[in-house]
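Quick note —
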Amino acid sequence: MQAVAEPSYLNIRESKLSRWQLIQTMLQHFWKRWISECLPELQIRSKWLKRKDIPLGALVLIVDQNAPPLHWQLGRITAIHPGPDGVTRVVSLRTSKGDYKRAVSEICLLPLEMDKED
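Predicted structure written out below.
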């Protein structure tokens, strides 16, 4: 997440692009398809499996379909807002740019081990 993002070449004709720009165009096209097709499949959404509760203080990526690679924000969960049925659907996040409320479907929980206080 330290790399500099390339400008978007998706709206430029391929005949006007250099070889590097053409490779970046393919990368950007792959990224757009991965976000819309693969990422939702990776998140568990089975109604027969009991969901694990989202832990307070967990580190997450905030999904932004319009952002280029390496520009998704990292956030930490500061509050959990369960619905009337007790299922968490909205969380409050703190990022470097401020505090936000996002739906659980718009975040990706990073698989990090959290310290357990016993």
